[in-house]
Amino acid sequence: MKGTIAIEEAIIDPAGIASLAQWHSLLTPAAGTHAESVTLTAHEKRLLDIHDLRLKSMDEHGVEYMLLSLTSPGVQGEPDSVKAEKIATVANDYLAGECKKNPKRFGAMAALSMHDPVQAAQELKRCVKELGMFGGLVNDFQSTGEDGGGKEYFDTKKYDPFWAMVQELDVPIYFHPRYAIKQDLEPGTKYGDRKHLLGAAVQFHLDLSFHLYAVCSSGVFDRFPKVQIVAGHLGENIPFNLWRACHWYNHPNKKGSRPSKEDYMYYFKHNVYITTSGNFSTPGLKFCIQELGVERCLYAIDTPYENVKEGQDWWKTVDLPGDQKEMVERTNAIRLYKLPLEE
Fold first, then answer.
1. What was the pLDDT predicted at 41?
2. Residues carrying an active site annotation
3. Residue 55, pLDDT score
4. What residue spans of the chain are helical by DSSP H?
């Protein structure tokens, strides 16, 4: 069958289930202890499921193929580098094995420990060359430090060995959000006094958009111009701010000292793709197509945080020209990720 290709679809490996416990209160802030446990158990089941209800839902609603990735915060939530590297290796081996059970319906993106850019580059290479994965996914910044309070962002020259490998392999890196760390939830902090802002509604795009702006303006894409990254949720709202961001970034007072050769719009049109994951807004998608070009827009659902049926029901109502709709729903993804599917 020819259907949609959804590319931001989460799983958890059996070894990673215990790590979800720390996010109980953030996933269900209004629930009591017992309800929390029940909710998480159901959530675990949805994340663990690949070949049963997930595949059944895909068949029922017209999803041909899913690119799977380790759920947030994944490896980025582990501040110990040795543990993080092991988590990534175990998760990648598991996910590659699951996809090999049904390669016509499932592919995978590599989980990466970003403590050591050289090690991250080698793990990405192993996943692409040996495990048959189609790229990598990072969950915003890498937690570091004994207390997990440190944050490593990937826009510094420290990460040039990683970006060099991404360019060599010619595979995309997906930038995905994560919850705030515990240090940012203490009383008196930005989110600590405003926990209602946490999560997908507000905090995810506020925090991840910072990282995306930083990468775009850092010179990474000048040094590695073939690198491609992907941002979900309609580009974490950045497309709607590109005019203003570029207007001031190009100001004569700033242009001479900025670290990148080009502005944000240039890099979004040459190095960034956006997806529809968890942002089923037809006007929003049309705006992104108008701003960035249809070839830069991809379909995604955000399973299991969003419902396959809801995503597909929305997609059926999207009134794009036929050729544009086909590009967004499948052919752009096939070309970008070099998926073994018929266009």
1. 76
2. 302
3. 98
4. 24-27, 33-48, 53-61, 81-100, 117-129, 160-169, 203-217, 220-223, 232-236, 242-249, 252-255, 264-270, 282-292, 308-317, 322-326, 332-337
Q: Report how far residue 289's alpha carbon sits from residue 234's, in angstroms, rounded to the nearest whole number.
A: 10
Task: Report how far residue 195's alpha carbon sits from residue 202's, in angstroms, rounded to the nearest whole number.
Answer: 10
Sheet with strand 173-176: strands edge to edge: 110-111, 136-139, 173-176, 229-231, 272-275, 297-298
pLDDT at 23: 52
CA angle in degrees (0–180, nearest 5) for 72-77-80: 150
CATH H-level superfamily of 4-337: Metal-dependent hydrolases (3.20.20.140)
Q: What is the pLDDT of residue 21?
A: 59
**DSSP codes joined into one string, 271-311:** TEEEE-TT---HHHHHHHHHHH-GGGEE----TTTS-HHHH
Q: Are 264 and 213 in contact (CB under 8 A)?
A: yes
- Cβ neighbors of 142 (< 8 A, separation 6 or more) are 75, 76, 84, 113, 114, 115, 151, 152, 154
What distance in Å separates the CA atoms of residue 91 and residue 175, rounded to the nearest whole number?
A: 18
Q: Give CA–CA dist 99/123, Å, rounded.
A: 18
Pairing of strands 63-70, 4-11: parallel
Are 158 and 117 within 8 A, CB to CB? yes
d(Cα 218, Cα 203) in Å, to the nearest integer? Answer: 23
Q: State the pLDDT at residue 254.
A: 87
Q: Which of 300, 339, 250 is nearest to 7 (CA)?
A: 300
What's the distance, Cα to Cα, between the start and end of the chain in Å?
A: 11
Residue indicated by tokens 């990720």: 337
Count of CB atoms within 10 A of residue 97's CB?
12
Cα–Cα distance between 298 and 336 in angstroms, integer? 10
Question: How far apart, in whole angstroms, are the C-alpha atoms of residue 279 and residue 82?
Answer: 36
How does DSSP assign 165-187, residue by residue?
A: HHHHHT--EEEE--PPPGGGGST
Mean pLDDT per 10-residue interval, the chain, length 343 residues? 95 84 55 48 90 98 98 96 98 98 98 98 98 98 97 98 98 97 95 95 97 98 98 98 97 91 98 98 98 98 97 98 97 98 93
